[in-house]
Design goal:
Elements: H1 3-10, E1 15-17, H2 24-33, E2 41-43, H3 47-61, E3 66-70, H4 74-85, E4 94-99, H5 110-125, E5 129-133, H6 139-154, E6 158-163, H7 184-195, E7 200-202, H8 206-217, E8 225-227, H9 235-245, E9 251-256, H10 257-262, H11 265-273, E10 278-284, E11 287-288, E12 294-295, H12 303-310, E13 314-318, H13 321-334, E14 338-343, H14 359-371
Parallel strand pairs: 1-2, 1-3, 3-4, 4-6, 5-6, 7-8, 7-9, 9-10, 10-14, 13-14
Antiparallel strand pairs: 11-12
Length: 373
């Protein structure tokens, strides 16, 4: 099904969401149609943020908005869906478009398996009627489903379209790029050169995949690295938990701009705890690159200023290799909570692989390594 046809049948003129690779066709169509436009399309920090933003749109216009997301974000909408949108509270209608990662019977990465199993059940438990869109779904079938949903929306209920892998297509092209010279893989390689035997907690997506391949290419152990393959936005909190229990060990967190935005409150907790042994590195390419490259709000933010306001002892931003090397070396010797933002180009190797160890093996090896420190 063409993404344009999906938009036509939904009949909405306001979309907000968190990009998903399975919804890349829709995301690219939205970017070509609206770009980032406060009247029609906003990429938000997390899915709960989207639901609240869409609720405000409905309150101001009386119209029904669309919220798009990966199914991993269902957890972030449970609270607003139950305590804000629900017809027992404010009865705010909303159309959710959800990419179905980890659909039973379809091979996917480990972080998507359980979420895929409970995707439809979570919607059912929240009282959200759903319709699954697959490759075989016709325009007429989708239109019929939307017609069935309209009376529910008029009653203030929410509905969802769950999109299977490959169900949506879009012929238009969108190029996401910036002018920064450093590639993320090179940044991570420089981090590993300075961090030595220190443990690293890396964020979800391509950053962890690149870290794994860098270790493999160098013939180094993977035991020092905790690869946060899921739970986007939580790697810095995981790193904090490790750092507080290992105060004599330097702990590095490799984070991304989209992940930082998703749960930015973590920076306030980091700043309040002020672990002297934690170095928080945010690789900022201003994009949700792992799921397609759509922009984040972090491209134009002053992350070091936010870190300092949260209580970080030191924060800096760099965009070239020499400055990065100096900041990494200084942070390792500083003995104070530090943030280094690294402005980064969009892009990764086409042949970038995935970890060959399981998530459980990663956890066990990392825990065993921490016991030696």
């Amino acid at each position: 099904m063409q993404a344009e046809k999906l938009m036509e049948i939904l009949g909405a003129d306001f979309y907000t969401g968190v990009p998903d690779s399975q919804l890349k066709a829709l995301c690219n169509c939205l970017m070509n149609t609206y770009g980032i436009d406060p009247q029609h399309h906003i990429i938000a920090a997390n899915e709960g943020n989207c639901a609240a933003l869409a609720a405000g749109y409905h309150l101001a216009t009386g119209k029904v908005p669309v919220v798009y997301m990966q199914n991993s974000g269902e957890g972030n909408i449970i609270n607003p869906a139950a305590s804000l949108l629900n017809d027992k509270v404010y009865a705010i209608p909303m159309i959710f478009v959800i990419g179905w990662r980890g659909e039973p019977g379809i091979h996917d990465e480990p972080q998507h398996i359980y979420q895929g199993e409970v995707t439809l059940k979570l919607l059912e438990d929240m009282g959200i009627a759903s319709f699954v869109i697959g490759k075989e779904t016709t325009d007429a079938q989708l239109a019929e489903a939307m017609q069935r949903f309209r009376p529910l929306l008029e009653k203030g209920l929410d509905v969802a379209f769950v999109v299977r892998k490959g169900a949506l297509s879009y012929d238009g092209k969108v190029k996401y790029q910036n002018d920064y010279p450093l590639k993320r893989e090179e940044i991570i390689r420089r981090i590993t050169a300075v961090s030595g035997n220190d443990p690293i907690v890396s964020t979800t997506g391509k950053a962890s995949r690149e870290l794994f391949e860098i270790r493999t290419a160098a013939g180094e152990t993977h035991a020092r690295d905790f690869l946060t393959v899921g739970s986007m936005g939580h790697s810095s909190s995981i790193a904090l938990g490790v750092a507080l229990q290992k105060p004599e060990t330097k702990v590095w967190c490799i984070d991304g701009d989209g992940a930082v935005l998703m749960h930015m409150g973590a920076m306030a907790i980091l700043g309040s705890q002020k672990p002297k042994n934690l170095i928080h590195i945010v690789i900022n390419n201003g994009a949700h690159e792992t799921v397609g490259g759509m922009p984040t709000a972090a491209a134009n933010m002053d992350l070091p200023a936010i870190a300092r306001a949260c209580g970080y002892a030191y924060a800096a931003s760099v965009c070239d290799a020499d400055a990065l090397d100096k900041e990494l070396a200084a942070a390792r010797e500083r003995g104070a909570l530090s943030l280094i933002e690294v402005k980064c180009a969009i892009g990764a190797r086409d042949d970038l692989g995935r970890p060959t160890t399981t998530a459980l093996e990663n956890k066990q090896n990392f825990m065993q390594y921490l016991r030696t420190l």
